[in-house]
Protein: Uridine 5'-monophosphate synthase
Organism: Helobdella robusta
Amino acid sequence: HCMKTRDLMERAKLAKHEVSRKIFEVMYQKQTNLCLSADVTNSKELLHLAESIGPYICVLKTHVDIIEDFDQSTCRNLLNIAHKHNFVLFEDRKFADIGHTVSKQFTGGMFRISEWADVINAHPLPGPGIIKELKNANKRSGCLLIGEMSTNGNLITPAYTKATLKMAEENDDFVIGFISTSRISHDPHFLHFTPGVSLDCKGDGKGQQYLTPSEVVSKRGADILIVGRGITLAHDPVAAAKVYAQEGFSGYLAAVDV
Ligand code: BMP
């Protein structure tokens, strides 16, 4: 039973959303559980990272609102590269407002996130209305609920995380998993994405706290490791991505369920 939930094709079959099924399949096909957090501030750099690191990742995570020269061609190009290298796009917008507002933030404005993002995320803080309205706005994207954060002194409590799980279970046709620093659900169809991963640093001096790839995947039960500056600021980002991908995936295969 333990190994069964580590079996990616088994998990793909259990997926309740098209996007989580796709992610499990990509993880299996490319043998990677690395998500690149491409936190750069111009389109050229973003597309260059996507093109060069694309072969080693299953997910590329963006913060499109930090891109100075963003326009719809940024997304079109990103979609083409995602298709070419077989990864999915995750916009880390962290919706956290009333349903009426988030549905506009999701579909409208400059970024029109719903037109290109496979994965989005939301804080469960406002209550289930946030999930309902995001889903009504566009159910083709899959949503991750932020059940835990990696930052020092964050206000999330075990009770909050438990309530997050309940909200996810009640909306599992749209919620595909969690942003978390530990395994929140033992249900194999939910994905756990864990940020705060670095091989070299313990923190960034701005609240971020890091664990190593093997710690998050083997000890904390992460499915997917999110790595930003550990790759983007490395002397050789492609070489660094390969190391994170290798450590992450060997940890995933070796891990027993926690
Ligand atoms: P880095 O590996 O450079 O520290 O970047 C981490 C990324 O993950 C950032 O894009 C940040 O917004 C995101 N993140 C995080 O670090 N901690 C969380 O709890 C949730 C996040 O989305």
Strands lie at 34-37, 59-62, 88-95, 119-122, 142-146, 175-179, 191-194, 224-227. The radius of gyration is 17 Å.
